Amino acid sequence: MDALKRAKRKFWIAVAVTVALLAAIVATCFSYMSFEAPSTGILVADNGAMKAIRYPAGFRSLPGTPWSVRVHRLQVPWHWATLVPAYREDRFLPTDPLICSLSLPLWPLLLPPAFIAYRAHRATRRLSRAGCKHCGYSRAGLSAESPCPECGRAPTT
Ligand SMILES: [Zn+2]
């Protein structure tokens, strides 16, 4: 497979991964998924963020929900604050023990595949111009082996 085909395939795979991740992140804004470890804590994906909530010592989960994964409709409205990491300590009542929670936004997961797609797109454009693979200078009228007149590099390296 030549470099152009490889770059095109890389571009579409990276776009597909970016779109799938974006769809999953948007889906967490309409419903939320939780994984609960009994009396220990709960992992919640909602509002485009992943929250880890540590239950205080002695906290008892409701009976009948061991090691559960559940999908619920969202109860908390979306807020800009979910776009940045956050650490909170909360209690339901002043006499209750502290509940610690860490919230990490999910959008940074989009950056690597989006960056790969951007790079692959640029490589595709550069290669499809059929000029020099290194600098893009036109190779019209040159033989296949002759080095690039602009950057001096060989066509195959
Ligand atoms: Zn060149």
Main sheet record: 6 strands, antiparallel
Number of strands: 6
Instruction: Enumerate the spans where pLDDT stays under 50 for 5 or more consecutive residues.
Output: none
- List SSEs in N-to-C order: HEEEEEEH
Q: What is the average of the pLDDT values?
A: 84
Helical content band: 25-40%
Distinct small molecules bound, one entry per kind = zinc ion
Approximately what portion of the residues adopt beta-strand conformation? Answer: 15-25%
Number of helices: 2
Instruction: Report the principal-axis shape.
Output: rod-shaped
Report the structural category. alpha+beta
Distance between the termini: 15 Å
Rounded to an integer, what's the Rg over CA atoms?
25 Å
Strand order of the largest sheet: 4-1-2-3-6-5
Explain how this protein is built.
Helix 1 (3-27) packs antiparallel against helix 2. A 6-stranded antiparallel β-sheet has the order 4-1-2-3-6-5, with no helix packed on it. The protein is of the alpha+beta class and 157 residues long. The protein has a domain at 29-105. Helix content is 27%, strand content 24%. A hairpin with an 8-residue loop joins strand 5 (86-90) and strand 6 (99-105). The protein has helices spanning 3-27, 111-128; strands at 31-37, 41-46, 49-54, 68-73, 86-90, 99-105. The chain has 2 helices and 6 strands. The mean pLDDT is 84. Zinc ion binds at residues 132, 134-135, 137, 148, 150-151, 153. Residues 132, 134-135, 137, 148, 150-151, 153 line the site of zinc ion.
